[in-house]
Amino acid sequence: MYEFAVTPAVTSIRRRGVEIAEVSPDSLGSELELESGDRIIKVNGRVVRDYLDFRFQTGGETELVMEVRKHTGEEWELQIERDEGEDFGLSFEQIVPRQCANECLFCFCKGNPEDARPSLFVRDEDIRLSFLYGNYTTLSSITEDEMQRIIEQRLTPQYVSVHATDLAIRAYLLGVDEARADISGKLSRLLDNGIDIHAQVVLCPGINDGAILEKTIADLAAEYPRITSVAIVPLGLTRYNTDKRLTAVTPEFCRETIEQVGAIQRALRKQHGTTFAYLGDEIYLRAGQSVPGRAHYGTYPQIEDGIGMVRSFSNQFAALVQRMARKQNSNPSRVRGTIMTGTLFAPVLRPMIEDLNERFGTELNVVSVENKYFGGDVSVAGLLGGGDLLAASDRVNGDFVIIPKTTLKSDEDIMLDGTRLEDLQRSFGVPVYPLDFKGFAKFLINQN
Ligand code: SF4
After folding, report:
1. Which residue in 287, 340, 359, 371 has the fewest CB atoms around it within 10 Å?
2. pLDDT at position 331
3. d(CA 155, CA 196)
4. Above 50 in pLDDT, residue 11?
5. Percentage, residues of the chain above pLDDT 90
6. pTM > 0.85: yes or no
7. How confident is the model at residue 235 (pLDDT cuts 50, 70, 90)?
8. Residue 448: pLDDT band by 50, 70, 90 thresholds?
């Protein structure tokens, strides 16, 4: 049963229905006197397990019967008539992810410090989150009920961690037996039912690289366009993941991979008009090379997996510079501050900021922050701990510090190691702004 498949990670008993988190004023939901804390149990006689079910079972329906358990304990049955497409104005509790049943060699959970936030140890493997947010699943323990749900509710595309189409290698990487690792039948069934797939390979030197990687790309490309793209991202080792079966990714390995996959990409572009197999940005940066141009990424099909982020950032930055030039104030206020980022991105960002300083008289300083919290070869900005940023405080100058927004929890001003934003502010003695690119652009435009 699906209920088993979505057994919450943190609670032992799953309550029926889906809980309403908020009701917009003047909406159909408020007219129906629905309130936060109420649970929608069934729509037109069908069980509602989460907000995807709610969306699916109400979509296109103008006459509905809704069973509701009020937060007061009362049971209501609502007969509803609504205009086509009229929104209920409801938002719902978050989906609690289902957990995976694998023991991947490279699992990120094994690379966490013991005191990391509990959410970093959640091994989510959930087809709903795959559809909604592009989270990867392995399909190795997908249930029949979940398969049917993807197909019936059109939860497309799905993001699947394939790693290798060689069955023995896939089983080895996932730490499961070959019967469980074999997803060929499941993939075919999804594809035959019109579900698009984006695939992923976590590239582990000496295991699924070389000829195994070539076979994986060729097998997946044979299903193009039903399999839309493949992301090839490098294994990331922290100082806590000391599994002897894993070999660290080196700059030389990255260069060889670019050369090997580059030839395949060229052939695929000729054949299908798309790069299809995309290498992670980190592979280019660690090889000491610049990332490919805009045309390489097409519609950026793997941007959720971070692929093409550097190219997209560079393009957006160039557009920002043009916008600033058009708006340039003849008497600009002095913009003096520090931008902190990871060691991987700092060499990319620094020349852009230097150019900005030269053109507009800003005095921005890029500080490259080493990741000691995870250690190993972790160099991306989003995994910096607060302690790492604090350790760079002697390099702060100017009137503010900008840090990557991704270093903070999405719903709270707290970092991976428990450091709070106010701790940084206190230590740096200037305001600290957690910004993504959009926020950074807005900040600069307003100062210009
Ligand atoms: S699928 Fe593998 S990498 Fe992902 S959470 Fe499970 S064990 Fe970890």
Report:
1. 359
2. 52
3. 9
4. no
5. 80
6. yes
7. very high
8. low
Helix (H, G, I), strand (E, B) or coil at 100: coil
C-alpha to C-alpha distance for 394 and 424, rounded to whole angstroms: 13
Q: What pLDDT score was predicted for residue 6?
A: 38
Helix, strand or coil, per DSSP, at residue 330: coil
3-state per-residue secondary structure call for 192-248:
HCCCCEEEEEEECCCCCCHHHHHHHHHHHHCCCCCEEEEEEEECCCCCCCCCCCCCC
Average pLDDT over residues 300-327: 92
- Six token digits for residue 107: 């699992």
Burial (CB count <10 Å: 0-12, 13-18, 19+), residue 298? middle
Distance CA 355, CA 360 (A): 9
Taking a C-beta distance cutoff of 8 angstroms, is the pair 392, 256 a contact? Answer: no
Q: Give the span between the Cα atoms of 217 and 163, in whole angstroms.
A: 10
Query: CA 220 to CA 198: how far, in whole Å?
Result: 10
- Residue type at 368 in one-letter notation: S
What is the best residue among 99, 103, 105, 107 to mutate for testing ligand 1's pocket, by most ligand atoms within 8 Å of CB? 107
Q: 3-class DSSP state for residue 365? A: strand
pLDDT in tens, 43-71: 999 999 999 999 999 988 899 999 999 99
Summarised one tens digit per residue, pLDDT across range 381-408 is 989 999 999 999 999 999 999 999 999 9
Q: How far is the CA of 151 from the centre of ligand 1 (A)?
A: 24
Q: How far is the CA of 161 from the centre of ligand 1 (A)?
A: 9
| Residue corresponding to tokens 């049963």 | 1
Atom number, ligand 1, closest to the C-alpha of residue 174 = 2
In angstroms, the CA 79 to CA 82 distance is 10
Which of 43, 172, 39, 165 is closest to 102 using CA atoms?
A: 172
Q: What's residue 9's pLDDT?
A: 42
Helix (H) or strand (E) holding 63: strand 63-69
112 CB near ligand 1 (under 6 Å):
no
Q: What is the mean pLDDT of the chain?
A: 92
Q: How far apart are CA 273 and CA 165, in angstroms?
A: 23
Answer yes or no: is the C-beta of 424 below 6 A from any ligand 1 atom.
Answer: no
Question: Does 100 contact ligand 1 (Cβ within 6 A)?
Answer: yes
User: What residues form DSSP beta bridges with 161?
Assistant: 200
